Amino acid sequence: MKSKFVDSHCHALWDFDDGVKSKDEALALLRCAVSTGIVTLFVTPHLVKGGIYDPSAEQIKQKTQDLIDLKNSSDLDIELK
After folding, report:
1. 20, 3 in Cβ contact below 8 A?
2. Alpha helices, DSSP H only, in 1-81?
3. Residue 50 CB partners (closer than 8 Å, separation 6+)
4. Is 64 strand, coil or helix?
5. Mind giving me the DSSP string for 25-40?
6. What is the pTM of this model?
7. What is the pLDDT of residues 60-77, one digit of tens each?
8. Element at 6 (helix H, strand E)
9. In terms of DSSP bridges, do strands 79-80 and 5-10 run parallel, antiparallel, or are they unpaired?
């Protein structure tokens, strides 16, 4: 049986911080996570108010939904939080 893991810190939202830089990189990250047994991934962008990483709550929600849509359209079995 394959081990199941939770990744509690991941920069999978493109264009926000020092994580993935594109939708293609995000998809590759999700595929890699699934292939290594990760079943739940917490999306945790950097948030530095007034700093170089300062996305709004709405931007984070929208980009998270974009990532969920990408995951669903790619038929990947991983939970995103």
Report:
1. no
2. 23-35, 57-73
3. none
4. helix
5. HHHHHHHHHHHTTEEE
6. 0.88
7. 999 999 999 999 999 999
8. strand 5-10
9. unpaired
The letter for the amino acid at 14 is W
Tokens of 77: 């079995």
Identify whether the C-beta of residue 50 lies closer than 8 Å to the C-beta of residue 6: no
Q: What is the distance between the terminal CA atoms of the chain, rounded to a whole angstrom?
A: 25
> pLDDT per residue over 5-27, tens digit each?
999 999 999 988 889 999 999 99
Query: Which amino acid is residue 43, in one-letter code?
Result: V
43: tokens are 């999306």
| Three-state DSSP class for residue 59 | helix
Query: Is 42 in contact with 36 (CB distance < 8 Å)?
Result: no
